Each structure stands twice: as structure tokens, then as C-alpha cells.
Amino acid sequence: MGKVLIIGAGGVGNVVAKKCAQNPEVFHEICLASRTKEKCDKIAEDIKKQYGIEIKTAKVDADKTEEVVALIKDFEPDIVINVALPYQDLTIMDACLETGVHYLDTANYEPKDNPKFEYKWQWAYQDRYKEAGIMAVLGCGFDPGVTNVFCAYAQKHFYDEIKTIDILDCNAGVHGHPFATNFNPEINIREVTQVVRHWRNGEWVETPPILEEDSIHFTFNYPEVGPRESYLLYHEEMESLVKHIKGLERIRFWMTFSDEYLTHLRVLKNVGMTRIDEVEYEGCKVVPLKFLKKLLPDPSELGISYKGKTVIGCIFDGIKDGNRFKKYIYNVCDHAEAYKEVQAQAVSYTTGVPAMIGAMLVLKGVWAGKGVFNVEQLDPDPFMDALIKYGLPWKVEDFDGELPEF
Ligand code: NDP
């Protein structure tokens, strides 16, 4: 049915490539390209062994639009899945525009010198993608991604009006390292050291970063894994959801962190290791956070010893036919099972599967449109069905537990 070019061969790229290879009736040709071709070749070898399918591999520096354009012209894909880093979003979007190919990613653009992830740069492509007759699907991982689809589903099936949304992201897994991040350490640490924002009554409200003593947190009793400390955090899907979920009065995002993780990160920050500016060291220019990334475990290699589960979902409070009630939609994913299937931990798995599903829906013409879309603007039903079919089953429950009111 279609040809897919996947850019990025890290933790998530490995899952996307394997999930696409599991569905050759949709993805009849696959090319996996990245900065380090050896990583693509290693994944291609696994795919050949596991599924008997040959995929192509290529070297590309996706910071250079002309390299991506040349690769697209050579391979002629119908869609590009970008699972490199957020820094490459715009150069890859430019290349898709120049060649008339659909685009999909899992994280919004962020300039290297400024840890401000915002959709404004990618939304600015709206008219150009429309005129070119192609589709860009933004933020199609788990969060953003599945959480946005959960919101669209709740809006479509349960509520006339959603008043509040709380997104709760719990990783109750244990990887056996004193300190490691579950996806790219540089991107992860930039995200979690920011000032926190949530949205209420039409404006963004700032609160202290998670490392500060007065950060906002509470204990939530997660299904299957029990109580975990959950910290208020800014997360990118809130920016598009406040635009697209009508009548919303408040949206917050919570993520679990262990004391050990917070202590390590606090020390690293205090000694300057999370800085993103260049430091002169013995005649070399070093960016401390990039150097730290080099020292930390590679997220794509955490899976082998990872035990436990992730539990990510949304709690809605809204009104239907005059009745006010809460619903909880969530997925539970087991690290060890994900590893058994595609040799990846659950954070890579829960990101890679939705990216494959989004691309599949575009190739099948089920998700169709011209322009730039966040996933909650597209029909959630086929995506929700596909989540069950392709490894991320979800549950819906009435919710009568407590959430902090502030
Ligand atoms: P990794 O760091 O494991 O992998 C990134 C890959 O991109 C590496 O193969 C890297 O190559 C490649 N890459 C980096 N720069 C370039 C470049 N200039 N040109 C070509 N390839 C490049 O990250 P993850 O797999 O953990 O994450 C991938 C993406 O998924 C990130 O954008 C992340 O933010 C997003 N994500 C989204 C989530 C969601 O739920 N929405 C959750 C988790 C992650 P090399 O090996 O040479 O460094």
C-alpha cells in the first residue's frame, strides 16, 4: 500500500521500524535512515531475522534539508516518519514540502539554543502544506499522541463539554541504573528542568520546576502499579488541546519521578551539568548537557533489564445531557513484554506503536487532509481500534478518586 521512510534509529526508531515490518501489507517498503547508519543496519538485521523482511537503510544528516530531499527523491516514500530529535522537525518538514510527501512526528520543534518547545513554528507550515496537498501529523507518540486521541475520543463519545483534563504519566518500571532517562537524555532533561505551566480559565499559570522544594506534587493511586508521587509538569500536548477541546476550563499534566531520579538531577543541575550553553574546556567547546548525554545509559539499551509497567492516561471531568461525571482512559504497558516483542523498553514502545499507527492511517487514507494537524483534530475511532490491535490496549473507567483542587 505504501512506502515509508523512517528517520532516526534510536529507541523509538527501532520500535517504529519493527512495527512497520510486522505489517507488510500496509508498509510494503521501508527505509530506515539516521545519522549513524550502523544503528540502522543493526535494526535491519534484527528485522530480517525476526520477520524475514528486508528493509533499506541510509545515512542522513537531517539537520540538512538538502540531504533529506536527496534521500526522499531516491527512495520515493509516501510518508516520512520523523523519530530523530525535535531539532530536526523543521528541516524534515521542509524536505517533505519540497518533495510533496506526507510527514509525521512525535515531538514538537525546539530550537537547540532555547529549550522552548512550542507548536508555533510547525503550525506556521499550515498554508504551505495545504497548497502542496500534503498532510503533516504532529505529535503522534504517546504523550503527545495517544493522550490527544483519548481527549478526542472522550469529546466524541462521552461529553457535550469537557471541563477539566488531567493527564497522568507514570513509569513504575525499574531499569537497574542509579540514573537514566527513558528517552533521549538531552531532550528529557531540557523538558523536566523547565518552569512548570498548566492552563486554567484561559491563561497559562506558572509554578516552580519539579526540582524546587515548592514544586506541586501529590500521590496518585495508579491502576495495576499503586500509589506514586506525581509532579505537575509542562507538556507540549496541552498547547494544542486548549485550542481544540472546546469549553475546557483547566488542563494539567502530571508525571511520576522517584526520589532517586530527582536527587541525581538536582545535583547535576546544581553543578552545571544540565547547562545547554557552550563552555570552554582545555581549548574545546563543550555543551555540558550533551557531554552528560554521552555518559548516561543509552535509552535504547535500557530494555534488557527493565521490569515493571508504564500507566499513562487522562482523567476527564465534563457534562453530558446536564449530568457531570468523570472518566479515566488509560493504557498499561509492560517493559519486559515490550522487550520480548521488539527489544525495547515501554517508553520507546508506547511512542513507536502510535507513530506506526498514525502513518498506517494516513497511508490507508483513513486519516486524510491537507495541511498541518494535531492528532486530536483527526477521527479518534480508527486509532483507538488500532491501539488494541497493535499492542497498546486501553481501558475506560468511571473515576471517583481524588485529584488536587487548586
Ligand atoms: P534517541 O536519542 O534514542 O534517538 C534519536 C535518533 O535520531 C538517533 O538514532 C540519532 O542518531 C538520530 N539523530 C539525531 N540527530 C540526527 C540528525 N541530525 N540526522 C539524522 N538522525 C539524527 O531518541 P528516542 O528514540 O528516545 O526519541 C526519538 C524522538 O521521540 C525524540 O524526538 C523524542 O522527543 C520523541 N519522543 C516522544 C515521545 C512521545 O510520547 N510523544 C516519548 C519519547 C520520545 P545518532 O545515533 O547518530 O545520535
TrEMBL record:
Residues in Saccharopine dehydrogenase NADP binding domain copies: 4-137
Domain of life: Bacteria
Pfam family, one: Sacchrp_dh_NADP
InterPro entries: NAD(P)-bd_dom_sf, Sacchrp_dh-like_C, Sacchrp_dh_NADP-bd
Coiled-coil stretches noted in the UniProt entry, renumbered to this chain: none
Domain Saccharopine dehydrogenase-like C-terminal: 141-392
PANTHER family assigned: CARBOXYNORSPERMIDINE SYNTHASE
Protein name: Saccharopine dehydrogenase family protein
Origin species: Deferribacter autotrophicus
